[in-house]
């Protein structure tokens, strides 16, 4: 006998070595049926047992039958015989029991009344089976199996009537009754009898005839009303009872059996039970001895298998340590099951083990045992309503403890968010534990900071820890944590104390500025940001409207980033005036230029009083933009600008100013003499379009061959080239003269062609418009009651159209009574519309003279 006190039920009956090595979770858990059963089996031995949803019925080798509750406590005891009880059968209601023994006794009676059937046979009766509806049926049917299969039922006189269903094939060792079908096994095979049609419908032969049927009995089990599972030796067959097609019946039974699956197993079958679409099998195991040729008995196995069409797949396998398994034979084991709760009872002479499906608590136990805490926590969260022995929070705490023990502090801290939830006490305990192990940094980023908040002292403790060892981490926490979590003044003081030792530490200075910002001391924060030239200074100014605080810090802002500073100042002119900015930048002319330049770009008139100063600023710092400024500004003093440009010898700007002041000849002279750029001189002359300028240009260029070439190439459309050509001295060598003359001729031809083309277009357009006007004037004009005389303003048509009247209609659509018209115009025979003539729209001669 192999027992181990103090073990978990799942460890007491299964192979421990396999359980420890395997990572696959077992499907079943086991526990020994104790209480009254223990005392019974100490003095007696179990021979059979039947399971009902409400109780158990146990038969012994000494002829006793015990009724037990599910925990194994004895509720009733029956002295049936002095020899072995072979079979106990219960109906579905559990109200009637059938018992048979080795000495031939058969008893069928009600548990609440001893009236029933009592008979002694002259041969051992191996099995008895009650009709499933025995209590409700009027016929009270049951069958017994010895040498014959006998059917008993009560007739209408309340007497028992017997019928032989089968005989002649040896001892009947097993009977299973389901609905109207009775299945039994004898030495030859398995038969099924349909009690409704009183027909035997199949005969499933035994495969291995070498095995003694009394030592290796057949196991039968109904999966449902039409599926029978047969196990014999090492062979399993699944048989389906089906209805036969009426056209195929003839003299055949109305039903037939089809074997849907058949396969061999490794060991000898002691019992079968269904589990959903799978199969629970109890095996008797023999193994060969290494020292002798004899086999020895090992622990029985309980397997779950998945039947397939041509084999099976093993789902799980457990070796059971039952008492005295070394002395048991295959016939000593039985497997009974309770359909309602998926309980499986393994019966041996000295032990009864109960196997049941593992529930979610068992699944979590296994995960925790294998240290799979993540999966255990997930399983508990999903099934929190169904678990009874476990608590989600406790599992989570075990997981956190495991992570801490293995050194995964970040993982443990991360799990705190999920596990601790809103339990402030647990949070604080964990924070102090992390402090004890020196891992406050790990938990800092996961502390609650929303609606749920810990005491300020907790947050301050972590901040002080970071301030000692990690300035960057300290700065990160200050940025991420809301200022309400801790005492801001205390942290400011701590940072200030550190800065006394290291006053240039930019990280601490930045953090101090952020703390000042939380405390709404923006002036101090701004001062630090400017000192550090920090990029957030502009955001701080905008966000908190600190423009009044920066009026005396404009130069510092410009030092940091001129472009951003100028944009901010210009965007907020209503808060910091232009005059104030100019005053502050008076000593920084380069910054002043940048500011005034951008101001001028935005609006040419806003800074008009500073345009005079800007001339010098442009000349000093930004000459490329000086000329555009002079062109665009209407408030710039030209004399001052000319003076500055002449002092600095800015020729282009001076030329522009001279031309703008009306001194074009001097401007042209500067272009010719100082720039020596004929193209620019020509462009200037074209722009001014002054004949005197062209004359000056020709006079200046007449003794300079390159200038003559430039003039010949460009003046053809503005000045008659002959004037220039006549003034060229004889014998003067002019570069590219031929090309220039050809270009002049080509330009002339082009002008002629353009004029002719324009003339043709004008003639065609004039003709087209004349024709259109003629067609329009030839059209009739509608005159009706809505028209009025433009002179007397009466309706143009008289009310009595039968009398004679005259109407004059002009092409301009004005209408008059003839008698209302003024005297004719000066041209004989031509009359004009006085309205259109008065508006100088041209004459409109009368089209129609309507008379009636």
TrEMBL record:
The Vps41 beta-propeller domain, residue ranges: 28-357
CHCR repeats (start-end): 566-710
UniProt keyword Protein transport, yes or no: yes
PROSITE patterns: CHCR
Disordered: annotated segments: 1-28
SUPFAM superfamilies (UniProt xref): TPR-like, WD40 repeat-like
SMART domains, A to Z: CLH
Acidic residues composition bias: residue spans: 12-24
Keywords noted in UniProt: Autophagy, Cytoplasm, Cytoplasmic vesicle, Endosome, Golgi apparatus, Lysosome, Membrane, Metal-binding, Protein transport, Transport, Zinc, Zinc-finger
Superkingdom of this protein's organism: Eukaryota
Gene Ontology cellular component list: clathrin-coated vesicle; cytosol; early endosome membrane; Golgi apparatus; HOPS complex; late endosome membrane; lysosomal membrane
Subcellular location(s) per record: Cytoplasm, Cytosol; Early endosome membrane; Endosome membrane; Late endosome membrane
Biased amino acid composition, Basic and acidic residues: 1-11
Main location: cytoplasm
GO biological process, one term: protein targeting to vacuole
InterPro entries, sorted: Beta-prop_Vps41, Clathrin_H-chain/VPS_repeat, TPR-like_helical_dom_sf, Vps41, Vps41/Vps8, WD40/YVTN_repeat-like_dom_sf, WD40_repeat_dom_sf, Znf_RING_Vps41
GO molecular function: zinc ion binding
Domain Vps41 C-terminal RING finger per the UniProt entry, residue ranges: 787-838
One Pfam family from the record: Beta-prop_Vps41
Family: Belongs to the VPS41 family.
Role, per record: Plays a role in vesicle-mediated protein trafficking to lysosomal compartments including the endocytic membrane transport pathways.
Name assigned to this protein: Vacuolar protein sorting-associated protein 41 homolog
